[in-house]
Batch of 4 targets.
Target 1
Amino acid sequence: MPSLHRRPSRVAIIGTGGIAHAHAEAVRELGDKAELVAVADIDENRARGFAEQFGAERFYTDAAVLLASESLDLVHICTPPKSHVPLALLAQRAGVPALVEKPIALSLEEIDRLVASEERTGVPVLTVFQHRFGEPALRLRRLADSGVLGRAQVATCETLWYRADEYFEVPWRGRWEVEGGGPTMGHGIHQFDLLLAVLGPWSRVSAFAARRSRPTDTEDVSIALAEFENGALATVVNSVVSPRETSRLRFDYEFATVEVEHLYGYTERDWTFTPAPGHEELARLWDGDGDEISGHRLQIEAVLDALADGERPGVGIDESRRTLEFAAATYASAFRGLPVGAGEIDRDDPFFRSMDGGAVPWARVKEVVA
């Protein structure tokens, strides 16, 4: 149980762009549990304005100076993806746990640097996967783990979003070397992370990826078929070319179907529980009526409670790596035209060093034309 009486956790935010506002609002909603003491951004005016807006006492233009100057319980890293690993390593060296926006790293090689650093320092690096922390998702995991739903059979995971061409005018979007990938890395990763959290370790992936219409170097759609160690099969679709936007997960167990459809955050009302014929009594186990959205506050609160009580917070580096490896396997399978098994992408594999693996079909076509 979390401590009933403790001082507010001291947190800082590095990067004050759009997603940082969600973090700061979440910290504000925690009231006496947490206080935002400092922020950092390379743009001094933006850092100052953000600090004033959210009541931080100090602002910095250098993350290293912030980490050296402040006594912190947690630092939130909300910068563009390419800077995530360098900043997380900096936080570990300063002894400060870091909560990093997705994707935590641009490659398996990068995330393994964090794994090694955590082993040396003992300082955790966590990934923002807030949808794991909504009460319906926690309930599903409890029921599935208890065995009352029977064996997992099949699942569907869809992130069907729409991003216009203008969205990719931001310099770091749609580029392998800066963002790490397209919707597989930057959009659908939230949903398939929850899929993995519920179904457990995956064993094999077969995938397709394409650039259908967006002005990017990366894909704008990918589709994967995944097999899990428990025998379940799942389809995973990631898209930024879908005008009717939705995020959907469906889990079919022997004795019930559990599904959710939302967009950027779910509540209890977005979930449906359907018992199999003859198992109607299971419906009583799906009993929830809250209206909490699966946003950042839930994960941040869980992380701070765990750190305060000396427990291991989620989502830790091992689970983060498993989700990132699923993305790498999706790309490797799509671009090679072969299934990819868990653990198969080793240090000698080009897809270990980058998500494109130097094998993007439309990049080769572009080179030939040029």
Target 2
Amino acid sequence: MSLRRAAGPRPAHAAALLVAVVLGALILSGCGADVEPQTTSTTAAVPSQTLRTTPNPDAEKPAPAAKPKLSGPLAFHVRHRTQLRVKPGGKMVATIKTKTEFKSPTILAVAARKPGWVLVRTTLAKHHVGWLPVASGALFEQPRTIVIDLSAKTLTVFHRGKLTDRYRVAIGTSATPTPTGKYAVTDRLKTGDENSDYGCCILALNGHQEKIAQGWGGGDRIAIHATPHTWTIGKAVSHGCVRATNKALHQLMRKVRIGTPVRIKT
């Protein structure tokens, strides 16, 4: 279940969570999503925005335009190593680096905002949300959201509130259920082998599996990943991860950015 780089993959029956199928060789996906105005790519840095200026008759100099107001789901690109705090200016609980353990840029979903601060969703089990200073990075909009319906066993993609894609998926068993809640994509990874237990691709999430199967040594991180075992689609068979076909994951990799919010509901 963990994103630990040293662990080995489990059999297909247990291919629920991220382990060393990524092996250090797994890299950020090269297949980018559609480019939105605030970002240069689906996984990279957020460039400065072009701001229009208007003449100032009094000063006879251009007056700086107001920054565009951001709306909808937001993400925060951590550009400088910083400290996660329990509240704005409060106790420090962790260091947030500019890269994830899989060398992706650290782009975190935003849960709330206060002047000078953002509440972000992290991969930390004990501090799944925390506050970061806005000065440590850059905010931008996320055009897409993902909703996973465990009862229907579907994964639905919305683009600016409009339903665009729906996929049939496999979910966790009753003993190792897929956890519900609000999460976000932390990494976009390729396995290099569509016939591996994790299929072609992995969208790692910041969520954790609390009900770990006895004897499982893969950690507790959850993910959305592909599978060559199409017979599992539509069934409750995993250790908590959400599985879809290779075709579905290829499509998601082209569209979904790091930091995309993911809601898992019953």
Target 3
Amino acid sequence: MDATSAFDPWSPEFTADPYPGYARLREAGRVHWFEPTRQWLVPHHADVSALLRDRRLGRTYLHRFGHEEFGRTPPPPEHQPFHRLNDLGMLDLEGADHTRIRRLVSQAFTPRTVAALAPAVTRLARELVDGLLADGGGDLMAALAEPLPVAVIAELLGVPAADRELLRPWSADICGMYELNPDQETARRAVRASEEFSAYLAGLIAERRAEPADDLISALIAACDDGERLSEEEVVATCVLLLNAGHEATVNATGNGWWALFRHPGQPAALRADPGLLPGAVEELLRYDTPLQLFERWVLDDIEIGGTVIPRGSEVALLFGSANHDPACFRDPGRLDLTRAENPHLGFGAGIHYCLGAPLARLELAASFGELLRRAPGLRPASEPRWKPGFVMRGPRELLVEV
């Protein structure tokens, strides 16, 4: 039987637990052709880690080739609002453009910026846990996992409180395009959200140009290096990327992490007994049930994996979730071990596209897990989670809990 029969990203059963299927892929070889998406699946940690750093691959090919030259069909004209926004984000740039934009964004989004957010993150986590406790429980996703990162990103960017309810729907609709083989309705929603979010941010940028504030949008406008600045479209794309990448991953990491803890009841007790374990526990939860399961790369020059030549013009699907359960890298990978010392997980990627927001994600996760562990020692699941239909950004749609 073809090993890729174990990989069914559109199946609710596979989405609920993809890890047995990943084990079959790893056992069957280092790379597998997957006809439904016309991609090469890469399941092993060593290969995924190496390819993330290999400059023969790229998030885009447009810095070197045109669509036809690369053997690809240009996106439909009606999808242009999405691609214009997405293609200017650091995550989908390569070469000199990526270097320039990441350097300028790093001037504004500094470790000091993240550290300054710590009191606000702690306050927001406390307030949201207050609400969950007052209600005697509820949906952990809606009560804590989703609102916390949205509020933090909004505070970071300087989005007025009255407008913050707009951000989550825009983010969800845009991120639908990152799933495998998105349908036309998904694309339509993503285009509309791209247009609306871009227009909203353009208005906010105009306000900050006229009257700068102590927020990231103002800092991005002011960022300058050797006379170079970010264009307005680049500022917009950076803000959208920070929301989408930071928010979606943190939401799913929270839901996945708590579901993992609920299935290992001795682990939360160990964390409560020794809160110093929390930073390492966050890393282990990101490894154990990875929020971003798959990351794509274009092959810009021929590569070889395990004797299989993958030609220029191909696309590889790097399976982060599988890599993070590879027994060649992790001892007893199917066991949740919050004291795991060696943990080179790939939850934040690697190479030049390593997640710029990783410190902020760690801050948010430590705050929300720490607050709930401390104040809700009896927290328990009320039912099995309902999973979102998406696989690439994988997490619960609903996680009902009792306190």
Target 4
Amino acid sequence: MIKGDNGFVPSVPLRIAVRGGVDTMALLLTEDGRVRGDGDVVFHGAPTHPSGGVRLTETGHGTSWLELGLPGVEPRIARVLVVGSTEHGAMRDVVGLSVEAFAPDGTSVARYDVTDGSGETAMVLAELYRRAGGWKFRAVGQGYANGLAGLATDHGVDVAEEGAGAGAGAQAPAHAVPFAVPPAVVPAPAPAVPFAVPLAPAPVPAVPYGAPPAVAPAPAAAAFWSYGPVFEPYTRAGRDNDVITVKGLPPGPVVVGLDVRGDGYTGLSVLDRRNKERDTLVNSTEEDFRGRVLATVPGNGTLRLKLEAEGPWRVEVSPLATALRLTAEEVEFRGPEVLLHLGDVADLAIHYRGDDNLIVNIYELGGHDDHTALPEDENVVNEIGERRETVPLPEGPLVVQFEMADGPWRARLEHP
């Protein structure tokens, strides 16, 4: 890429290499272009975002890594800035300055070599931002002559200056981030996703993410992130009955999201090569249907879907890794959904408030090497009507599929 270029990247956990030996930082911004507080600033003194979705590590050899879990970025965050700064000299003096994003399988999905640095000491190198249901990467290269303090202030960060306001009882503002002096040490939360485990140090160019580390293997759950195809999400909108064809997809399991505005019947099926219905994904009379279901792309890379709907609709086909991760925080849904469990053994607490069937299946991915198909599922819930269920889950990685759930429901993890 050259300065100003942008393009879609897969909505999956990415590892972003910042090369050139600069100090690296990430700013998580809302729609108004500002941070919500100092928790949205990830830098050497606070290397992990409170959500666990962004983490900063350094491997030496002049390379820093930002580990950015796009599927887990909070909905209120619209942009993530990748920032570089230097305490000695200016950005024009930095040799080999670049920023590069890697997909979980080690594929480089975006790269920007910064060649026009000048006398500034801080620069927004790149940004990742939401667009049309997915994420884009933009090569920014915007320098700040007033340095890191000016850059941070422009995005809502109150920068605490060393010695400013000194005196009895003087305190830094609530959102102050003291870049000039180390902040008080606050224990960072444990990494929320397995890609947060750093690879062993490697010389530039860095070993692509997904390659075996030289010292110690990543946890078993990390294998999930190379599971299933990685691709740019496909979206399409229309009205009433239709046949949807998506070509050029890697074979394997994907998530199909469907949103229909209407009060009639909604059906979604996979068509086989004979143009016959093979798998029924949705069969609902729910008004204003919304949900996400599992489908498998066949070996020819073409997914064909038969949609029955009355009213406007929107379909999105996205990688399995975009599914929402289960945590101890209760989340509310309506309709079928695809979730991920990546941690240790836990119990899944469910409160279903619908009148019809509740069907929940799990797929154990550990030890399953065929990434073009899911393993055999295990049905853990098949009940009718409103109810509360607690289901024991084995160690992840797991796909937890709410195959049928007409009506509102809630779910969260409980750890024994």
